Amino acid sequence: MKFPRTYHTATLLPDGKVLVSGGVSCPGRINIQTVDNNGIPTCSAGQVLSPELWDPQTGKWTTMNKHNDVRAYHSIAALLPDGRVLVGGGGLPGAVGETGQFGLPIIDVDQDHARLFGHHSIEIFSPPYLFDANGNPAARPVITTTPPVSVTYGETFFLGTSSAGLQPKVSLVRLPSVTHGTNQDQRLVSIDPVPVMGGIQVTIPTSPSKVPPGHYMLFVMNNGVPSIAAIIRVQNQHLFPTAAPQTTASGAGQTWGQGVEFSSSVNGQITHIRFWKAPGEPSGGHVGRIWTASGLLLASVLFNDETASGWQEAQLQTPLSITANVRYKVTYNVHGVVAKTFDVFANGPITSGPLVAWGSSFSTPAGSFPTTGSTSNLFADIRFK
What we know:
The protein has one helix spanning 112-115, and strands spanning 9-12, 18-21, 34-35, 41-43, 52-55, 60-63, 75-79, 85-89, 122-125, 142-143, 150-152, 156-162, 169-174, 178-179, 182-183, 188-191, 194-196, 199-203, 214-222, 225-226, 230-235, 247-250, 256-264, 268-277, 287-292, 297-302, 310-322, 328-334, 337-340, 350-352, 355-363, 372-374, 380-384. Strand 3 and strand 4 (41-43) form a beta hairpin. The strands form nine sheets. Strands 23, 25, 26, 28, 30, 31 and 32 form a seven-stranded antiparallel beta sheet that branches. Strands 11, 13, 16, 19, 20 and 21 form a six-stranded mixed beta sheet that branches. The protein has three domains: 9-130, no CATH class; 142-235, Immunoglobulins (Immunoglobulin-like, Sandwich); 247-384, Jelly Rolls, CATH 2.60.120.820. Helices cover 1% and strands 43% of the residues. The protein has one helix and 33 strands.
């Protein structure tokens, strides 16, 4: 870089470039000014007000327009969904060489008037990709449809776009968690979408090592120019990430144990058990279970805090490790009303990322291992990582 600095913050941008902002350049702790034993300045004007932009394609740094305030200790910089960067804070303590609380000069960061002094402002930096060659606002791609709130590994979804170009790109940028010069969660994942009529098909990578679960800003890129981002949540895999039951059936006065046989193409862990609760099904007393395909009980959990209907989820006390290409069964008990969709498995298994649902089964009474096969989807599910 042109300017040596410490206490700066690096921010990943959706085009893959890195903005470095803030910092101080005088040696020592937090100094924009230093003096020798005779009081003669050895370093002055040590605040670094000019951000620098690193291009990984060229390996070169470019100096950007200055910000106004010293951004050193406790300052932050974070990417915003509109592609700009929020730069703010700093101080507590202020830097040596600044004027602290009560108008007193800071000569030691441990002084009270230094420790109580901070910069309470924010500034907004607009990266070069937001402008065309003439300095006018760049024409940006537009996301025209709302993406799914949650997506799972390996899932493909349609995203309506306009002005995305012939070779659009997608950048997933994890939401920021920044302090003390470090963005704890910073990550950028580039995806090559498939252009289709009216938009693009986006496929989430299958590896949680590449895309850890959590919230991301999704930018559509056209020749390095980003759209305004949509926020999506990448979550651990489900057997039925988007399916919903089409009907309900009476338990005919009996309690039932029912579930779905499944396997995974990769080793992993089951962290939660899920089931779809039909409207009218009494609350309380629902237990989720994981079995081997032959009926050996491996794990169980009681569902608490149930809603009136819809997906219910309970976390296993300890994640259950499962082996690739081995079949298991996830079950739950029904008191009186069953949520189901008929004949889902009549044409074969259902694949969702690395997971395969092979078919349903049921039995009575509740809590027993289900052995009677069914082609209906009985909506027992897991959360898998």
